[in-house]
UniProtKB/TrEMBL annotation:
Family note: Belongs to the metallophosphoesterase superfamily.
UniProt keyword terms in alphabetical order: Hydrolase, Metal-binding
Protein name in the entry: Metallophosphoesterase
Single GO MF descriptor: UDP-2,3-diacylglucosamine hydrolase activity
Length: 288
């Protein structure tokens, strides 16, 4: 987003909020950003193996620690995530808002919190644009690894449960990295149910020809500010077509889910766009 476009949208957001009332502005800045919600979704496809029926996949995204979101809030989030006893935990990018401005102490605290998350099928993550930004690429990789998360950067893994397996793949960030869907799926069995993590949702147009069933994304923050009749006031590049929730992609069976994420960036408020994490429950269909 250019500086001019950002300032224009920022002005529109402020005017929209102030136009509603000063109380609304206070709510958007100080209350709604802390109203964390859980979305419970079901992924039902005939490619989901019977042994993965009822498997819980927890997705969280865009914490942006450091921009109006601190370590105590993050530690509380980790406790809540753990309470769901998920089988698989996925982080879809942007841990810190500005990684190169974070102290060693905070980095260590974030890694310690992440290490408390438990999931028998594993914990995986992908880069977001803020993870690469500010020379943060190696910093974030180091501390996510300390937290027990495995990076999927244009690669995939096979996850086994019982006598069956599914494929989990991840792309490098589409804005500041070098995503390569062919490399990510090289050697993967196209017959297996396949989940792809990709930070930017609009990048799905580069993915839809691949053997992917579900793409999980973040990045959009749900627009952060939604005004009745005006819609999403601020959406970043590569999250302007697909902003939140589920989407079916025209002329292709791939489905896309976009999380609103946890934190905020650039604009320190949310309105009609509560922060969220998502618990996806896999469901095997019986018509096989």
């Amino acid at each position: 987003m250019s500086r001019r476009t950002f300032l224009k949208r920022l002005s529109g957001s402020l005017l929209g909020l102030l136009g509603l009332s000063g109380g609304t502005y206070y709510y958007a800045k100080h209350i709604e950003p802390s109203l964390l919600t859980i979305k419970e979704e079901t992924i039902e496809l005939n490619k989901v193996p019977e042994s993965f029926d009822q498997v819980k996949v927890l997705q969280f995204s865009d914490t942006h620690i450091g921009f109006h979101y601190d370590i105590p809030q993050f530690e509380q989030l980790i406790k809540e995530l753990n309470s769901h006893q998920a089988d698989l935990i996925l982080f879809t990018g942007d841990l810190f808002d500005a990684p190169n401005q974070v102290s060693f102490e905070i980095l260590e605290q974030a890694a310690a919190a992440l290490s408390k998350l438990q999931a028998p099928l594993g914990k995986y993550w992908i880069y977001g644009n803020h993870d690469h930004g500010g020379y943060g690429t190696e910093i974030i990789a180091t501390y996510m690894q300390k937290g027990g998360f495995k990076l999927l950067k244009n690669e995939h893994v096979s996850l086994h449960n019982g006598d069956s397996a599914i494929t989990l793949a991840g792309l490098d960030d589409a804005m500041l990295g070098k995503p390569d869907i062919n490399k990510a799926l090289q050697g993967a069995n196209p017959e297996l149910f396949t989940i792809l993590m990709c930070h930017e949702p609009d990048y799905i147009h580069q993915v839809k020809g691949a053997s992917v069933d579900i793409q999980l994304s973040g990045h959009s923050h749900g627009g952060q500010v939604q005004i009745p009749f005006l819609g999403y006031l601020v959406t970043p590049p590569l999250a302007q077509e697909f902003v939140e929730g589920w989407y079916n992609i025209k002329n292709h069976p791939i489905q896309l889910y976009v999380s609103r994420g946890i934190g905020t960036t650039r604009l320190p408020y949310r309105f009609m766009c509560k922060p969220e994490y998502t618990l996806h429950k896999l469901k095997a269909t019986s018509n096989r």
